[in-house]
Amino acid sequence: MPIRSDIYMPELHSALSHLGADLLVDTVNNLDERLLNASPQNNADATYAPKITSKITEVRWSQQTSMELFARYRALYGFKNLTTSFLGKAVQLLELKPLEIQLPTSTVLAPGSFYFHRLRKSLMIGCAQETQLEVLQLRVEGKKPMSAHDFNNGFLKRAQSLQFTQNKLVNC
């Protein structure tokens, strides 16, 4: 089944569950034929998905491009949030997207560095390979979810550093 590059986990889950249900009904309805054509699985070719742990949510700004982070965000959507750290506090990235506008080359950000883009009302964050991610909503440890604009007003204007760091696996 082809998977679109812009699909989010809940939609993919639904599509795959319907496909699986249809295939199961087809198998039951044609069981004799399926058993005649069955072939044993070669255990040497079997692959196993890794267990999903909280480590999968950690953002590594210097190692992951914006598209890799956006793919992980879509894969975890509705299940877990990507996490980072700011001024020693865990931060969950609740709504994000890859940067769709071309910024001047003077605006290349170091991985984890960011600024608030007033016109777009979002945070622009530097990622690996000089890519950038746009964050629209986030949650700082101990706080309610907030827009990038509220984060700018409440945290950035008082901050000495405008850089996210690798988180310490603290729940928000």
Question: What secondary-structure arrangement, pairings included, does this model have?
Answer:
Blueprint: H1 9-29, H2 31-36, H3 66-76, E1 82-86, E2 89-98, E3 114-117, E4 122-126, E5 132-140, E6 146-147, H4 148-154
Antiparallel strand pairs: 1-2, 2-5, 3-4, 4-5, 5-6
Task: Describe the model.
- With 172 residues, this protein is α+β, with helices and mostly antiparallel strands.
- 26% of the residues lie in helices and 20% in strands.
- Strands 1, 2, 3, 4, 5 and 6 form a 6-stranded antiparallel beta sheet that branches.
- The radius of gyration is 21 Å and the shape is elongated.
- The two termini are 36 Å apart.
- The mean pLDDT is 86.
Essential attributes:
172 residues; alpha+beta; six-stranded antiparallel beta sheet; 4 helices; 6 strands; elongated
- Note poorly predicted spans: none
Counting DSSP H or I runs of 4 or more residues, the number of helices is: 4
- How does the overall form come out from the CA principal axes? elongated
Element string (H = helix, E = strand) = HHHEEEEEEH
The rounded Rg comes to 21 Å
Calculate the terminal CA-CA distance, rounded to whole Å: 36 Å
Biggest sheet features:
6 strands, antiparallel
Question: Percent helix among the residues?
Answer: 25-40%
* Integer average pLDDT: 86
Proportion of residues in extended strands: 15-25%
| Structural classification | alpha+beta
How many individual β-strands? 6
Organism: Drosophila arizonae (Fruit fly)
Pfam families: Formyl_trans_C
Domain Formyl transferase C-terminal: 51-155
Protein name: Methionyl-tRNA formyltransferase, mitochondrial isoform X2
